[in-house]
Amino acid sequence: MQNENPIREHELMVTRRQLFGRAALGLGTAALGQLMAQESHGARRGVLPATHHAPTAKRVIYLFMSGGPSHLDLWDYKPGLTKKFNQQLPPEVRNGQRVTGMTANQKSGLPICPTKYRFTKHDNNDRGLWVSELLPHMASVAKDICVTYSTFTEAINHDPAITYIQTGSQIPGRPSLGAWLSYGLGSMNENLPHYVVMHARTNHPEQSLFNRLWGPGFLPSDHQGMLMRSQGDPVLYLSNPAGVSSSDRRVQLDALAALNNEQYKRFADPEIVARIRQHEMAYRMQTSVPELMDLSSETKETFDLYGDDAKTPGTFAACCLNARRLAERGVRNIQIFHRGWDAHGGLPREHGSQCKDIDQGSAALIRDLKQRGMLEDTLVVWGGEFGRTVYCQGNLTKENYGRDHHPRCFTTWMAGGGIKPGITYGHTDEYGYNIADSDGVPLNPQPSKETRTPGTMHIHDLNATILHLLGIDHKRLTFRYQGRDFRLTDVHGHVIHDVIA
Amino acid sequence: MKCLHSSCCRVVTVSFTAVLIVAGINELKTAERQGDVASVDFARDVLPILSNKCFVCHGPDSNDEGQLRLDTVEAATEIRSGYQAINPKSPEQSELLARITSVEEPMPPADAEKQLTPAERDVLTRWVKQGGKYAMHWAFVPPQKASPPIDAPSIRNEIDSFLLIRMKQKNVSFAAEADRRTLARRVALTLTGLPPEPEQLERFLSDNRFDAYEKLVDELLDSPRYGEHQARYWLDAVRYGDTHGLHLDNRRGIYPYRDWVVRTLNRNLPLDQFITWQLAGDLLNDPTLEQRIATGYVRLNPSTGEGGAIPAEFQMKNNFDRVETLGTVFLGMSLTCARCHTHKYDPIPQTEYYRLLAFFNSTAEPSMDGNKYEYGPVARTPKDQVAWNEWSVLLKKRGSLIRQAYNQLEQNNSLEGKALSKWLESSDAERLTMLADPESAGSQFKLTEKAANLQSRIKKSEAAFTTTLVAQDLAKPRATHVLKRGEYNLPDGAPLHPGILKVMGNFPEEAPRNRLGLAQWLTSREHPLTSRVLINRVWQRVFGEGLVRTPEDFGLQGQQPTHPELLDWLAVELQDSGWNLKHMLKLMVTSRAFRQSSAWRDDVSDPENLLFARGAGFRLDAEVLRDIGLWASGLLDPAMGGEGVKPYQPGGMWKALAHPASNTKNYVADKGQLLYRRSLYVYWKRTSPHPMMTLFDAPDRESSCVRRSRTNTSLQSLGLLNETQRIEMARKLAERLLLNSNSDKARLDQLFELLASRQPGSMESRVCLGLLKNMKQRFSETPEDAMALLSQGEASRNDKLDPAELAAWTQVAVTVLASDVAILLY
Fold first, then answer.
1. Same domain for B500 and B362
2. Given this model, what pLDDT does residue B83 score?
């Protein structure tokens, strides 16, 4: 958006003040109530008066696999590697790619490590989709998803890489994707927060998450994601203290509103009116959130779809089911973080368990959205911050191995919300090391964020595409901070129309 | 500050020469007198338009390929194949005029992201027609003190004069003064972050002398609570945290720096020294422990110990962070743009960015933190304020003992030769050892017993010391180069000497080319920004909003000050006063402007309070909200300093995020008094700060924050009404009310006295007593609910009080504590 008046644009507080402005002054209590009623009918608006173009997705569910899933063991089928077991990776393949400190000096060098898993080909709407035996359920939705083999990033360590894909910068301080959406589009409902984040349970809670991944950066902090937790209150401080009933709270809130109203009479600050409204929304949330978390109305068929795991709060499957319930209730922006994909050693054991966590839930989510007619306007995104190397880290046997971080190509998928169903996008070379042309020849020069290279998807492109599907031109959703009009995609990013229906 | 065009990321290597040379606003004023069109102020009216709409292609970084530049008068008036963008001799012939109105070849081009508005086109047109003169961006011209423009009975000090003149232009004047109670609450919260003590309030109200208010202000400025409150703002700006921030986000040992900030603000160390010690305390002559602790500033950047990370990359990332934080904190500017290429808007060449970086590139700590509490140079220091005081007393005693020895020495020359020179060369610690050693020459001073005793006490005290990260330079500096596109592995050109940003004045003559010289540059009188930027933030915390509403950006893209002469007057006054922060705060809070009622006015339409024609009104910060409750309930523990404290927090919040190897994955709440320390001391885990802090807009402290947002959310409502500590505070507050009086009316009066510094109004009384009645009945019918409510939090319950009544009052206290009566400044 244009910043004709950047003065207070990053203080929505004052924007609201301007909204109320003089209108709120000198009005009696009755008028005040009317004013509040008007505001509370529409849920909170975003900064964009309208989307930049007609959106194909109304909402997004982002399944984030933190740690870097192995594209080579899950999606990117490289049968030719079997013969190359334990051979050194030819230097020309690596071609200057930096290696992390963990494998830079290993005695075994960079030995090629074929996947131990069997891949089978499944019909999609294109030339078919190879899927590893680790993801049997996902294989069954091959016709619904668009798999990108050529996602890439520059960051090679977790913290910078996760921060990069979620905020557009490797260094902390920028708003997250979800905060940008909240800032741009606002909220579609008034009983639940607009941006919900869940942390799914894992047997391998390796690597850290950070508040910044759903944080507001320099945007007003009400754009931060709200954690929906599986331990204690699902929403922080949701429950009344012990000994206080809902009707007590009602009485208390009426008194609170009366006190605040007195304060308003003294000072006429419109912000006070807005706060009375927030207290009321909090009260409604105390009903709407438990109703949301109560799965008793879900059918047996639904649990068959998501699996028994979905009955255990905090599992990935339960989070997926919650995500669908949130989407139904008008929450625009839902993210599930699943940790434990950082398999430097013992990859089969760890990835086996990780895939078991996510496979059925992810596939069920797609099917469930589809059968409810919601997939067409719900975008589902799956991926991590980078991929894993074709060479082994640590001891290499045919049955057991580890893989280091690999930024140069990795696999992500999207579904619904205007994405072409049942296609694949991009190619990698025979090693799954470089982005390649359709004949498997590595692209030369290396793709970079600086220019658009057909057949590739830089993480900025991924974010630009997500915003596009939601009706936002990634170059025009900006926020002025320290003199610069910032955006999620920094000075980069291209919408990848090849994956859009 | 990178920019929106992808073209802006090319590397610009041309040397940067000119900066918006002053051509004289006076000439513009002449034009105004001569012409009949309103005159245009280049710096105020034109430059922001050029910067925002034109510099993306025609700005400081557009010097190659013959591209026209509009950021300097020379470039803009250059004769280019038959035309001049600005033709000063025949302004009507200026190409700029033609192009901004052209349909065929418009500027900005039709497809540009930012187009000119008609008003902007009009400003540019008038400017060119008036001669197209350039002037320096206001913030790069050192501030000068103008005389206060007017005098009037309503004026209390110079501040008011500068404000009133603008108000008069809008035909308004100051709002009525706030009543004394409201004023006392406001000033106490502003200076100390707590309401006035009831006795203090009483004393002020009954003091009829003309300077009663000034006395109250002095009292508040002298309170130790003052330093704690003011320190918070600084800690946000310098991104103080108790953990590394990246990857494992492990504990790091630097809290003595936080305590130093508190102590130093309380002592009112001049701000120029406050800055110098932090940037370069280690480089001062024979630095004291405090001067070394202060250099923790240099070590506050988030750091990583992630396996596989490349040290050379993080050496640079750490330095980027330091340079850019320096930019925000002292220069009020983002320098980030110049990391990769010459700044798009502000005249900062990439080379100068790396010269500035060179000041920090030779510190001795490793670039990777190893996930350790201590890494790189540390200082050993007392662990909290009590220990600090005790140790200081011991050092004073040591000093006086050594003075006694010196006196003896003067009288009888008792040491000679080697023994004398050893004595003279020694440190005080070594001298004490000599005095204490019965075998050494020092024994003849006959202070052996005293010295030995003192020495053992000092040793004992020092054995309990903790460590804190400090700055120290390598013996041999690292080479610093420009990095292409900011990539750590793409050095470009010859190594650079440390240097400053030329647009902000010269490097002081004879200053050393190290961090000490850097500090001298920042605090020199010629520096155009430091004093303005600092005083603007002080103003912001006192009046709710800055004079420059973008405290993080004084550059070309930032806001102009609402009152430029006032900002400059304050900046120079800060310097003239010897960088005296308490003096400046006192000026502000004793002004007529500060004393105004904060009620919105029917006669002034100014929702953003740009005129400052009403007092400040805003929701108080997270820390203050908690502190007020602790204070009112009597729970607040006044102890100062020490390792971060951990109040109640919902279970599993850290675990849900943390690496299994992290030593901050388990949050274990403290016990006893530590639960009730001021919020300043709450443990700051950067990847997951305390939720009651972040809920109310506290920053994560991973990057510099010079202005918090002030949001208003439903989640805040839940926090205010349900969080364990808030219930605990409320029930202890209820106990206090019940113990103090037997009448509900008197109890309610006390509640309002504490939280609002006034009696409740009749409606407020009715509402609260109604709630009380309702709750009393409710809890006497279900005593188990009363007991459940009264069991929240660790603090013991007074079992002499009737549980139903106590629970009912607890509900009243929770409600009033959550109401705008308590949570707002007004």
1. yes
2. 85
User: Quick check: B35 pLDDT over 60?
Assistant: no
Write down how long chain B is.
826
pLDDT confidence band for B41 (50 / 70 / 90): confident
Of B405, B436, B463, the residue that ends a domain is B463
Which chain A residues are closer than 8 Å to B760 by Cβ?
none
Question: How many domains does the structure of chain B reveal?
Answer: 5
Count of A–B CB contacts within 8 Å?
315
Distances in Å between the Cα of A19 and the Cα atoms of A281, B295, B718 are 20, 46, 25
Q: Is residue B150 part of a domain?
A: no
Q: Are residues B416 and B336 in the same domain?
A: no
Q: Are residues B373 and B289 in the same domain?
A: yes
Separation between Cα atoms, residue B621 and residue B639, nearest integer Å = 21
Q: How far away is chain A from the Cα of B454, in angstroms, using its nearest Cα?
A: 49
Q: A271 to chain B nearest CA, in Å?
A: 8
Residues B396 and B431 in one domain: yes
SS3 B245: strand
- Contact list in B for residue A282 (CB cut-off 8 A) is 714-715, 717-718, 721
Conformation bin of residue A237: beta by default, left when phi > 0, alpha when psi is -120 to 50 = left
Structural domain for B760, as ranges:
722-825
Q: B794 to each of B271, B650, B671, B808, how far by Cα in Å?
A: 41, 15, 8, 19
- Across the interface, whether the CB atoms of A268 and B599 are under 8 A apart is answered yes
> B558: pLDDT confidence band, cut at 50, 70 and 90?
confident
Q: Hey, is the C-beta of A79 within 8 angstroms of any chain B C-beta?
A: no
pLDDT tens-digit series, residues B489-510 = 999 999 999 999 999 999 999 9
Match 């206001």 to its residue by tokens. B138
Can you give the pLDDT at residue B490? Answer: 94
A208 reaches B (C-beta below 8 A):
yes
Helix (H, G, I), strand (E, B) or coil at A458: strand
**Residues B374 and B388 occupy one common structural domain:** no
List the beta strands (DSSP E) in B458-582: 466-469, 482-483, 491-492
Whether the full predicted model's pTM is greater than 0.90, yes or no, is no
Instruction: Say if B93 falls within a structural domain.
Output: yes
User: In this structure, are B481 and B349 located in the same domain?
Assistant: yes
| Shared-domain flag, residues B253 and B359 | yes
Q: Are B707 and B618 in contact (CB under 8 A)?
A: no
Whether B215 is covered by a domain: the verdict is yes
The pair of three-digit structure tokens given for residue A222, joined into one six-digit string: 């009400």
Contact between chains at B4 and A281 (C-beta distance less than 8 A): no
**C-alpha–C-alpha distance, residues B230 and B261, integer Å:** 9
Stretch B702-709: mean pLDDT: 93
**What residue in B sits closest to A200 (Cα-Cα)?**
B656
**Domain end point (choices B483, B511, B539):** B511
- Distance from the B824 Cα atom to the nearest Cα atom in chain A, whole angstroms: 10
Partner residue opposite B767 with nearest CB, options A212, A258, A267 = A258
Give the burial class of A85: count Cβ atoms within 10 A of its Cβ; 0-12 exposed, 13-18 middle, 19 or more buried: middle
Q: Answer whether the bond into residue B256 is a cis peptide, omega within 30°.
A: no
| CB distance B292 to B329 below 8 Å | no
Contact B657 A482 (CB under 8 A): no
Helix axis angle for B224-237 and B255-267, nearest 10°, is: 130
Which domains occur in chain A, in start order?
58-230+313-499 (3.40.720.10)
Contacts (Cβ under 8 Å, ≥6 apart) of B519? B275, B276, B279, B280
- Asked if residue B716 belongs to a domain, the reply is no
Q: What is the ipTM of this complex?
A: 0.89
User: Is residue B358 located within the same domain as residue B262?
Assistant: yes
Residues in chain A: 501
Tens of pLDDT along B271-310? 999 999 999 999 999 999 999 999 999 999 999 999 888 9
